[in-house]
């Protein structure tokens, strides 16, 4: 249970090696945390994430095998977690960035991005929503992206997966409105992580812990949509109104 | 399962309006229906809820079934034995309306009449007379309980089922569904309270006045100005006024009890309306309003015991983020923690205008009953204050070290460790509970949060 001051006891991270999600776990008030599950494919990164959070003094951190693409298994996976106890916060943070040019040349790669970022998220998102609905409380945080606000030439395949995810998550939030369960859609701009390493930095590029702080504050306030950093909201609102011929010519 | 809400489902919170959760609310009109609901309970369990005056998550259960026993509202008063038998859903308000005109009063009333008999027993409530009369549960002669197997028990404070009785007193509704109880009433000859008031300029004075008055008054409580550095306060004490203290005119309606709601708080209050400035102004006025010293003032029951019942839905004034009430007890040996707590709340900038200090008498045999001999402080605090969690955790630590604890009916944030440490008879209680509820049917958000 979340307490009256918004302090959670349990967190499920879907995409348990995501740097932004791990930063979010670190930024949460930890006085009441007793169960933190990092769900991801088995990897050294996952093991070290468990070790790092534990070393940070966070209690009850464990890992579970989870593959966003294995949608057939999602139902049983989510059920087993919730049957062992309520989950207060679910972070839906998995996703692949992929290389736009390679994906343009090789549609199989594009399908893989779409499967992980969108199809997998729809599947696990609905299963999580069903359980949050049944327990009558809890928050689902969906890490979307400004890339989904308006598709750009340079990364529209990734952007389209996030656009789909974003629309799904907003609708899910509306479906859950009034049920005690709640969906927060986070739209970060470019974040310095291993996922974006080597890419040229966009304006207003930020760090994972900045996004994490914004997520934690927004959860406390019960917000439904938030940009990170916040002023990106206005930038994106402006960009969305640009006529296509102009938008197309913008630098990446 | 669709994600949409059905007609029966409702978002429930405690009086502090924090942490809502959704439950299926089922009105029950007969004991058979209660048994039926217990028998068909799903994995998320069953819980009885009264008028929702507990501040935290005690009377809600996300995903579970919450029973509304408003229909259990019969009240009968036996003027010969002086005992009241009432349904679990009857409120103290309705009990008082029924028995005061007959010259009787409830043995214990908290700061609101808007609690049910079931809630009064489940929370083992206390009032301004705890130092003399103990808790509500101490005056219960018998109660009817539907346990986790649907079996009906008549429980009494002594005899075979005494452990089950005392586990239910203060058991937060987790031993079963209380449907009815019989309890002592006290005889009164008027519906007025004779009140003595004294202003004290600092906390030491407040505490010494209170300690000295323990024997003198049946009812005593002190209001503390948390904004003032000295923690000045106003002590009010009293007892039921005998009829010969009333004027001739008052005697013509000596036992009349007709309280009215004077106002309703508007549904939407902005966050932060209660801030240091507004609370300072309120506290100044409240302190000045009290006479330096007065005795024998005749006040109505509602003015003396339940001033906030005059404003319906006053809990809205804390805005959408809600509030919590921090109430702890510490033994006399740790009375310095009262000052430490006030200091801490002031430091964190938690403006509280309803801070109440009171002395408790001895504890009763109930394993989870809150009151123990010593001092209890209760302070309302808006939930949105930065740093509040840490400040209260620090205070918890001091209180637990000193042998004190927090009141479950007010709690919405203590840790499971703090709870287990400060209620050392928890495992004894759990054994009795497991006997009454082997399937683990009865649960609440509070029970889940604290692993009760």
UniProtKB/TrEMBL annotation, chain A:
Any Pfam family: adh_short
GO molecular function, one term: oxidoreductase activity
InterPro entries the record matches: NAD(P)-bd_dom_sf, Sc_DH/Rdtase_CS, SDR_fam
Coiled coil: none
Keywords recorded for this protein, A-Z: Oxidoreductase
Family: Belongs to the short-chain dehydrogenases/reductases (SDR) family.
NCBIfam families: PRK07904.1
Name recorded for this polypeptide: Unannotated protein
Originating species: freshwater metagenome
Automatic annotation (TrEMBL), chain B:
GO MF annotation list: D-arabinono-1,4-lactone oxidase activity; FAD binding
Domain FAD-binding PCMH-type: 17-188
Statement: the UniProt record of this protein carries the keyword Metal-binding: no
PROSITE patterns in the cross-refs: FAD_PCMH
UniProt lineage: unclassified sequences, metagenomes, ecological metagenomes
Keyword Thylakoid attributed: no
Pfam families reported for this sequence: ALO, FAD_binding_4
Cellular-component GO terms for this entry: membrane
UniProt xrefs under InterPro entries: ALO_C (IPR007173), FAD-bd_PCMH (IPR016166), FAD-bd_PCMH-like_sf (IPR036318), FAD-bd_PCMH_sub2 (IPR016169), FAD_lactone_oxidase-like (IPR010031), Oxid_FAD_bind_N (IPR006094), Vanillyl_alc_oxidase_C-sub2 (IPR016171)
UniProt keyword terms in alphabetical order: Oxidoreductase
Name assigned to this protein: Unannotated protein
């Amino acid at each position: 249970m979340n307490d009256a001051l918004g302090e959670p006891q349990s967190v499920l991270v879907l995409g348990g090696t995501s740097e932004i999600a791990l930063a979010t776990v670190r930024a949460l008030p930890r006085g009441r945390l007793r169960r933190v599950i990092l769900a991801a494919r088995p990897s050294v990164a996952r093991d070290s994430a468990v070790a790092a959070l534990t070393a940070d003094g966070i209690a009850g951190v464990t890992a579970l095998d989870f593959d966003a693409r294995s949608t057939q298994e999602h139902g049983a996976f989510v059920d087993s977690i919730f049957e062992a106890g309520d989950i207060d916060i679910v972070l839906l943070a998995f996703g692949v960035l992929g290389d736009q040019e390679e994906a343009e040349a090789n549609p199989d790669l594009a399908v893989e991005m779409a499967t992980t970022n969108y199809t997998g998220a729809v599947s696990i998102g609905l299963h999580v929503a069903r359980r949050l609905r049944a327990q009558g409380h809890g928050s689902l945080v969906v890490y979307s992206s400004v890339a989904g606000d308006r598709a750009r030439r340079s990364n529209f395949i990734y952007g389209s997966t996030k656009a789909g995810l974003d629309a799904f998550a907003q609708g899910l939030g509306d479906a859950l409105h009034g049920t005690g369960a709640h969906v927060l859609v986070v739209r970060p701009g470019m974040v310095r992580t291993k996922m974006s390493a080597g890419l040229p930095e966009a304006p207003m590029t930020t760090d994972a812990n900045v996004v994490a702080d914004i997520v934690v504050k927004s959860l406390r306030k019960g917000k439904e949509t938030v940009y990170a950093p916040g002023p990106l909201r206005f930038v994106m609102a402006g960009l969305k109104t640009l006529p296509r011929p102009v938008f197309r010519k913008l630098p990446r | 399962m669709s994600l949409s809400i059905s007609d029966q489902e409702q978002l429930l919170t405690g009086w502090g309006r924090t942490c809502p959760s959704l439950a299926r609310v089922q009105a029950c009109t007969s004991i058979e229906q209660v048994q039926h609901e217990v028998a068909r309970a799903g994995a998320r369990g069953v819980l009885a809820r009264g008028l929702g005056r507990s501040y935290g998550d005690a009377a809600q259960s996300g995903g579970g079934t919450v029973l509304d026993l408003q229909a259990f509202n019969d009240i009968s008063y036996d003027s010969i034995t002086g005992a009241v038998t009432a349904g679990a859903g009857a409120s103290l308000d309705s009990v008082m309306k029924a028995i005061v005109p007959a010259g009787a009063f409830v043995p214990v009333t908290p700061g609101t009449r808007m609690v049910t008999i079931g809630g009064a027993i489940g929370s083992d409530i206390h009032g301004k007379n705890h130092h003399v009369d103990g808790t509500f549960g101490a005056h219960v002669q018998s109660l009817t309980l539907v346990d986790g197997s649907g079996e009906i028990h008549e429980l009494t404070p002594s005899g075979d089922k005494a452990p089950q009785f005392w586990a239910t007193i203060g058991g937060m509704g987790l031993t079963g569904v209380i449907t009815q109880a019989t309890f002592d009433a006290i005889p009164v000859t008027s519906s007025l309270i004779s009140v003595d008031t004294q202003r004290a300029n600092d906390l030491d004075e407040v505490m010494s006045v209170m300690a000295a008055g323990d024997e003198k008054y049946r009812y005593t409580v002190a209001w503390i100005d948390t904004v003032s550095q000295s923690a000045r306060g106003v002590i009010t004490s009293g007892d039921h006024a005998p009829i010969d203290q009333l004027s001739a005119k008052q005697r013509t309606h000596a036992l009349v009890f007709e309280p009215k709601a004077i106002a309703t708080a508007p549904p939407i209050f902005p966050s932060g309306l209660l801030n240091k400035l507004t609370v300072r102004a309120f506290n100044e006025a409240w302190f000045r309003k009290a006479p330096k010293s007065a005795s024998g003032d005749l006040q109505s029951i509602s003015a003396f015991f339940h001033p906030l019942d005059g404003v319906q839905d006053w809990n809205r004034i804390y805005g959408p983020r809600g509030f919590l009430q921090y109430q702890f007890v510490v033994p006399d040996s740790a009375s310095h923690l009262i000052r430490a707590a006030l200091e801490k709340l002031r430091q964190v900038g938690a403006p509280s205008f309803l801070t109440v200090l009171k002395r408790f008498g001895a504890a009763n045999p109930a394993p989870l009953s809150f009151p123990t001999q010593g001092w209890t402080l209760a302070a309302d605090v808006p939930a949105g204050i930065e740093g509040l969690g840490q400040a209260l955790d620090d205070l918890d630590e001091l209180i637990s070290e000193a042998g004190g604890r927090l009141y479950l009916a007010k709690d919405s944030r203590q840790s499971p460790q703090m709870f287990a440490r400060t209620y050392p008879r928890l495992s004894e209680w759990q054994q009795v509970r497991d006997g009454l509820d082997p399937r683990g049917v009865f649960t609440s958000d509070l029970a889940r949060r604290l692993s009760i």
